[in-house]
Each structure stands twice: as structure tokens, then as C-alpha cells.
Specification:
- The chain contains nine helices and no strands.
- The protein is mainly α.
- Helix content is 74%, strand content 0%.
């Protein structure tokens, strides 16, 4: 899977511009629709979203690496499983950091006529820098799940898997992309994220996994050639 530097930069810029556009013009209306039409969307979304949970990939990645590294030595498969482990851990850690930094309230904030919408990062500057930081981390501490909308962790994970599968089986990359998009849409169905959260997670998952891929590219390609 190849992506030139100009292509990656262009993709990132366009994604960020769409995130901004979606925040102001799309997010709220789409979220309100799924809030008001919770059935049957939420049940479907919750089921499909299972594929975006990182433990399904981190645990096999770790055990697969250890198995082929030490128990039944095979560097080709050891590095493949290590790649699987690395893309999910790296993107997952970045996702947690960004969630904490941005502190975006989930769509739950606009349910039942409420008007809580936006990012803690861009609020309460009247408190001063340290007062603002104290307020933000206190709010997140007491309602971690509520202020963890951006970026979508599930979208981050599934688009990391899109990169992984595209590297392993590039012939079916469009199938992997469709699967990733389906999980991303499921997060809207589940009423847990805004559209811009999904795009943000996709951007993070793809770019962070491509970074890991280029760091491991020589080992992966060497062992593919020797496999």
C-alpha cells in the first residue's frame, strides 16, 4: 500500500476541512435524526460497532507475534502479527490523547431538548489557562465517556484495520474500505458519535497506521519476499 507525501498531505487537509464543515453544517442535524429514529438504527449500529473494538485485534496481534517469534519461529508471520499489534496500539493511544485534549461531548448532549454541543478545548477561556485546564480535566474525570466523542475510537480502529488488511491483501482493498465505512456509519446509527468524529477517527486511523507501516515496511516486505 503506497501513499506519496503529497497525496497524504492532500488527504489530511481535505479531511480536516470536511471535519470543520461537518461540525458547523452537518453534525447536529444528522445526530438529531438518529436520536429521533433510534429504532431500529441503534440496535443495528451497536451490533456492527463490535467490529470496531480494538481488543479483537490487539490480543491476537500480541499472541500471534509471541507465538511465531518464540514458540514456532517464523519471521514472516511474526512481523505481520507485530504490525497488527502496533497499528492498533499506536492509533488507540493517539485516539485517547486526542479525546482527552478535545473533550467533545457526545450526541447525548443534544437529547431531550438540551443544547450541550462542542469541545471543552474551545470553551471557558474566561477562567484563565490553568483554570480552564482544571475545569476540562475535572469534567472529563467525572464523565469520561460523555466527553470522548472526537475522534471516534471505533472508527480509528477499523480504519487502522483497513490499512492493515490493504497491506496484507491489497487485492481486496476496496472491500476492506467498504467494511471500514460500514462500521463508521454504524457509530452514527448507535447514536454515539457525530459525522465529524467518524471522519476524524478515519483520518487518525489511516495516517497513524501508514506511519507504522513505513516504519516496518522493510521488515514486512523482506519477509514477504522470503515467505
Amino acid at each position: 500500500m503506497n501513499c506519496s507525501k503529497p497525496q497524504c498531505i492532500t488527504f489530511s487537509i481535505l479531511s480536516i476541512l470536511f471535519i470543520i464543515f461537518s461540525y458547523f453544517y452537518l453534525d447536529r442535524n444528522i445526530a438529531v435524526y438518529f436520536i429521533h429514529h433510534r429504532h431500529p438504527y441503534k440496535e443495528i449500529g451497536d451490533i456492527i460497532s463490535i467490529a470496531g473494538q480494538s481488543q479483537w485485534y490487539i490480543v491476537p496481534g500480541l499472541f500471534g507475534f509471541l507465538f511465531y517469534k518464540y514458540y514456532k519461529p517464523n519471521l514472516k508471520y511474526a512481523y505481520r502479527f507485530l504490525f497488527l499489534f502496533n497499528v492498533n496500539v499506536f492509533s488507540g493511544v493517539l485516539s485517547i490523547i486526542l479525546k482527552t485534549l478535545f473533550g467533545r461531548i457526545r450526541p447525548w448532549g443534544i437529547e431531550n431538548g438540551h443544547h450541550q454541543y462542542g469541545f471543552l478545548l474551545f470553551e471557558h477561556f474566561n477562567l484563565g489557562l490553568f483554570g480552564k485546564l482544571e475545569y476540562q480535566f475535572d469534567a472529563i474525570k467525572h464523565a469520561t465517556a460523555t466527553y470522548a466523542s472526537f475522534p471516534s475510537g471505533h472508527a480509528t480502529t477499523i480504519f487502522s484495520m483497513f490499512v492493515f488488511m490493504s497491506v496484507m491483501l491489497p487485492k481486496y482493498k476496496y472491500l476492506w474500505l467498504l467494511c471500514a465505512i460500514a462500521v463508521g456509519i454504524a457509530r452514527l446509527f448507535a447514536d454515539d458519535h457525530f459525522l465529524s468524529d467518524i471522519v476524524g477517527g478515519a483520518l487518525l486511523g489511516i495516517t497513524s497506521s501508514m506511519y507504522v507501516y513505513y516504519k516496518m515496511k522493510d521488515k514486512l516486505e523482506l519477509n514477504q519476499a522470503n515467505g
